[in-house]
Amino acid sequence: MTEKACRNCNFITEKSTCPACSGTSLSGDWSGYVVVLEPYLFSLPLELKQELQQKQVSENLREIFKQHRYVLSEQAEIQPINNKEWKILDGKKEYVIKEGNEQLNIYKQYLDPNDSEIAKRLNITLPGKYALRVR
Predict the structure, then answer these.
(1) What pLDDT score was predicted for residue 127?
(2) What secondary structure does DSSP assign to 10-75, as a single string?
(3) Which terminus, N or C, of the chain has the lesser number of Cβ atoms within 10 Å?
(4) Tens digit of pLDDT for each residue in 16-37?
(5) What percent of the chain has pLDDT over 90?
(6) The pTM is what?
(7) Domain span holding position 74
(8) What does the DSSP 8-state code read for residue 3?
(9) With 80 as the cut, is the pLDDT of residue 38 above it?
């Protein structure tokens, strides 16, 4: 199947509907791309979900991050994305937490849509592959 780029958000897909924005205006005529990564780091026990919902960066959470060689400062804060996803913002570091089966999975976001000119221009909102130019 041929990869197509969404004319609305530049997301590259093999599907007939864009998984990023649900758009149906797709083009096979695109060039260049940027890949937005959100690599898996480690998992947390599901019991910590309550702390995330309460937007608490507890000492327990800090210790678990430290055990995996990621240090959370005293200024770290939790922001809910939805009822199964959260962000931990800590200065320029950003971690995404997603509830999975029986655990909470931690990811590191390397390209922040709010800080990158490319991400702003392409309206990048999800990890994936985005076309630089779509016709």
Answers:
(1) 75
(2) -BEESSSS-TTT----EES-EEEEEEE---EEEEEEGGGHHHHHTT---HHHHHHHHHTT-PPPTT
(3) N
(4) 998 888 899 999 999 998 887 7
(5) 61
(6) 0.59
(7) 40-108
(8) -
(9) no
